[in-house]
Each structure stands twice: as C-alpha cells, then as structure tokens.
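Slides due. Your pick:
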Amino acid sequence: MKIVSIAEIADQEAALETDAGRQAELQAQARDHRRLARETKCAFAGTRHELQQHLPLILGTIAAVQEPDGRHRLEQALPQFEQHGWTKLVAAIRRILAGERKADALCADLDSQDSMIIETILQGLADPSSLADLMPREGPPPVS
C-alpha cells in the first residue's frame, strides 16, 4: 500500500484542473504542504541522528561550494550516488554547486530524507555552526 501525501494529492488535482488560476492555487498548496512536511521532519529529534550517516556527502558538498578543489573530489563521487538510485538528490546537489539556494525549488522533487540532506547543506552554507550537533564528538577525557 502506497501512502499518498497531501502534496501529491494537490499535484494530482492541479494536473486535472483546466482553470489556470485554480491550477496555480493547487500547485502553491502542494509547495506549502511539502515545505510544512520538511519543517516537521527537520524538527523531529531523530532526523539529526539520521543525517549523521550522510555527513560525508553534506560536508563534501559544502567544501565543494567553498573550495574549488573540493568540487573535483565531489564530482568524482556523485556518479556512485546516482548508481545507487539517488539521481534526484545528485541533481539537487549539482544545482547547489551551480549557485541555487532556494530550498523549495531544490527539494520539490525529493523525498523527505533527500530533502533533509539538501536543507542541511543549505543551512551549513549559510551558517557552518548549524552543523555542530552532527559532528562526531570526541571521546570522554582520559581518566588520570
């Protein structure tokens, strides 16, 4: 059984709508529902834990934007992600590399996990300290 989101229902209704004004309204509703779903997923405490497994990709993308040398390394790794079925995520990352920073546009075609990766990359670009809770913690200090 496939679960259909409210955004998908609005998209389906928009596709069937013949009135251009109503179609635009339904498309805007779908975008709003996607944004709200991303915000909800982002607010869930477990999401930060889930994102830790994607930290190399997140940090690699940020480095690629900030350092020209980092981009070459990332570009070499991206085809591996595509081979594992992450084609939409890779496309969004390439758009970030090209300068796009609008979360709604970048996340429009992504599932919730990929959207969280993109949102985290954008947050890290805007404020590197936002990634502090994702970084591995040092072990406890040695007991003397």
